[in-house]
């Protein structure tokens, strides 16, 4: 039995349309693979991104905001997406594991993550959220939201970017570890967790979205996981991605992968945070990390994906 943290990208949840029904269908397909991992005997904690969902909900909030019914702040919107996505995942896992041998035990935990109030990320927003826009669409959005910042996202279009402070501590990690030990399936630290700072011995929510890969690493370290699995849209990390000399990275030592990172092979906001998260987990724990696609998740023991080790 292995204790595994599985990190799902927000795009593994996003469907072709933004309706709840479509996203629930996407979640159901995603969780079938994770259910198989659980049935194989592994203890699995699930964390997930929320970039598309939190951005869409933010737009909804501001479109209908009024003095009598003001828009919610970003930390609260993050909590709302943790709840909605967690509910969809919990329900799907309940349906897939609800039989005599594997009783339904998925549980969603609204999770807070401590960040530094002086993190320079608050002055330099980099985390993409919400839908993609072409250049003209982005210019129109800036008319409606002049305070928003938009940047090109890995050549796929423009997206709004917000502060992405570095996670320092998963507040609820002891609870998550306890749930795993009691054979529950915790769905936790969604969207990286709600960013909070410590002020006057109290936790205070702040505006930002923590990168879920970094929080997944912090969670995996805090609960003493045996493995970190980052599931994304591609089978492997690649050298020279999308170029004629593209090369898949298979099993790789952490020092070699760090050299590739320093050479600039991985795009910021895309594969780079996954690589950095995998490196940190392996260096701090001595255990392995895997980066691969969702469709490979039921073959993790066969050597698929990019496997990072000491």
TrEMBL record:
GO terms for biological process: L-arginine deiminase pathway. InterPro entries: AceGlu_kinase-like_sf, Asp/Glu/Uridylate_kinase, Carb_kinase. Pathway: Metabolic intermediate metabolism; carbamoyl phosphate degradation; CO(2) and NH(3) from carbamoyl phosphate: step 1/1. Keywords: Arginine metabolism, Kinase, Transferase. GO terms for molecular function: carbamate kinase activity. The keyword Ion transport does not apply. It holds the Pfam family AA_kinase. One of its GO terms (cellular component) is cytosol. PANTHER family: CARBAMATE KINASE (PTHR30409), CARBAMATE KINASE-RELATED (PTHR30409:SF1). NCBIfam families: arcC (TIGR00746), PRK12352.1 (NF009007). Belongs to the carbamate kinase family. This is Carbamate kinase. It comes from Lactobacillus kefiranofaciens. The gene is arcC.
């Amino acid at each position: 039995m292995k204790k595994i943290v599985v990190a799902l990208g927000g795009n593994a949840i996003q469907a072709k349309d933004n309706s709840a029904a479509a996203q629930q269908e996407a979640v159901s397909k995603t969780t079938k693979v994770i259910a198989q991992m659980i049935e194989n005997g592994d203890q699995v904690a699930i964390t997930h991104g929320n970039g598309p969902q939190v951005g869409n909900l933010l737009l909804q909030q501001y479109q209908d905001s009024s003095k009598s019914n003001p828009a919610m702040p970003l930390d609260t919107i993050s909590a709302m997406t943790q709840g909605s996505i967690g509910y969809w995942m919990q329900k799907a896992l309940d349906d897939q594991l609800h039989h005599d041998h594997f009783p339904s035990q998925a549980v969603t935990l609204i999770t807070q993550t401590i960040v530094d109030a002086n993190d320079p990320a608050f002055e330099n927003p980099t985390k993409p959220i919400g839908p993609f826009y072409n250049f003209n669409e982005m210019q129109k959005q800036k008319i409606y939201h002049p305070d928003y910042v938009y940047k090109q996202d890995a050549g796929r279009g423009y997206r709004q970017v917000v502060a992405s402070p570095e996670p320092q501590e998963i507040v609820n990690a002891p609870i998550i570890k306890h749930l795993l030990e009691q054979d529950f399936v915790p769905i936790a630290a969604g969207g990286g967790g709600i960013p909070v700072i410590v002020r006057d011995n109290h936790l205070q929510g702040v505006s930002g979205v923590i990168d879920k890969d970094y929080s997944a690493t912090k969670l995996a370290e805090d609960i003493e996981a045996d493995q970190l699995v980052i599931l994304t849209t591609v089978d492997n990390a690649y050298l020279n991605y999308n170029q004629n000399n593209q090369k898949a990275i298979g099993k790789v030592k952490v020092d070699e992968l760090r050299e590739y990172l320093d050479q600039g092979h991985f795009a910021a906001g895309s594969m780079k945070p996954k690589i950095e998260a995998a490196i940190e987990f392996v260096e701090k724990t001595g255990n392995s990390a895997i980066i691969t696609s969702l469709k490979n998740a039921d073959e993790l023991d066969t050597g698929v994906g990019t496997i990072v080790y000491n």
